[in-house]
Specification:
InterPro entries: LexA, LexA-like, LexA/Signal_pep-like_sf, LexA_DNA-bd_dom, LexA_repressor, Peptidase_S24_LexA, Peptidase_S24_S26A/B/C, WH-like_DNA-bd_sf. It contains four helices and 15 strands. The protein is an alpha+beta fold. It is globular.
C-alpha cells in the first residue's frame, strides 16, 4: 500500500521515463510534488525502493528504474513483465544487465534468454553531439546501430554519440549514444538537438525566455545560453539512450 505522495512520485518517474527515457532530477521531482526540500524526495524514493517499486542503479547519478506499478494501475501486468525504460545497457559481448546491443544484425538474442529472439531496427549514427561546448553541425552518417523496436516511436530516427558532461544531471554521460526522433519544434523542458547559427550542434534542454530561446545544461558547471529565436533550429528530440560498459 503506497501513500498518496509515494504513488504520485512513482507515476511521475514512470511517465518521465516513458516520455524521454531519462529519469527526472530531484529538483523536478520536488517541484512536481510541491515539496519544500529534496530530503522529502529522498525519503519517498527510499520507501518506493524498499517496497520493490523502483531500483536505484549503482554508481550512476540520478539513475532510477521502475520495476513495477501498483496493481490498481496495471492489474496482472507486473506478474508478466517488469517495466523497462528506454535505456539500453550494452555489455559489449559480455554477460551483464540489460539487453545487448550488437553492431548490425537484424535480430538479436535477449541477454539471459537464449530462446527468445528480439527483432531490432537499424538506425543511422550521424556522428557526435556536444553535451558541452557546441561542435560542428551534424552532416554525415558514420555507421548504423540496431535498437529494439519499442525504442522507436514513429517518425524518422537517428543516433548521435555524446561528447561532454553538460547533461550528466539528466542521466546523459560522455560516451552514451542518444536516440533522436527527427523534429523541428519542441516543448519547454524537452531535451533537443539544437543547431545554433547553422554551424554548431549541441544537446540541451529547451526553454523559452520571453521571445528568446534558452539552451539549458544539466550540470551547474555550465551556463544556460540564450539566443534570439532566429539563431536556433530544433533538429530532433531525445527519445532514449544506449550506454555501453
Amino acid at each position: 500500500m503506497l501513500t498518496r505522495k509515494q504513488h504520485e512520485l512513482l507515476m511521475f518517474i514512470h511517465e518521465r521515463l516513458k516520455e524521454s527515457g531519462i529519469p527526472p532530477s530531484f529538483d523536478e521531482m520536488k517541484e512536481a510534488l510541491d515539496l519544500a526540500s529534496k530530503s522529502g524526495i529522498h525519503r519517498l524514493i527510499t520507501a518506493l525502493e524498499e517496497r520493490g517499486f523502483i531500483r536505484r542503479l549503482p554508481n550512476r547519478a540520478r539513475a532510477l528504474e521502475v520495476l513495477r506499478l501498483p496493481d490498481s494501475i496495471a492489474p496482472g501486468l507486473n506478474a508478466a513483465r517488469k517495466f523497462s525504460p528506454s535505456v539500453i545497457q550494452g555489455s559489449l559481448g559480455q554477460g551483464g544487465l540489460g539487453r545487448q546491443i550488437k553492431p548490425a544484425p537484424s535480430r538479436m538474442r535477449a541477454a539471459g534468454n537464449d530462446d527468445d529472439l528480439v527483432a531490432t531496427v537499424s538506425i543511422p549514427v550521424m556522428g557526435r553531439i556536444a553535451a558541452g561546448v557546441p561542435i560542428d553541425a551534424i552532416q554525415h552518417q558514420t555507421h548504423s546501430i540496431s535498437v529494439p523496436p519499442d525504442m522507436i516511436t514513429g517518425g524518422t530516427h537517428y543516433a548521435l554519440e555524446v561528447k561532454g558532461d553538460s547533461m550528466i544531471e539528466a542521466g546523459i554521460f560522455d560516451g552514451d549514444t542518444v536516440i533522436i526522433r527527427n523534429a523541428d519544434t519542441a516543448q519547454p523542458g524537452e531535451i533537443i538537438v539544437a543547431l545554433v547559427d547553422e554551424e554548431e550542434a549541441t544537446l540541451k534542454r529547451f526553454r523559452r525566455k520571453g521571445a528568446s530561446i534558452a539552451l539549458e545544461a544539466a550540470n551547474p558547471a555550465y551556463e544556460t545560453r540564450i539566443f534570439g529565436p532566429d539563431r536556433v533550429k530544433v533538429q530532433g528530440k531525445l527519445v532514449g539512450l544506449i550506454r555501453r560498459y
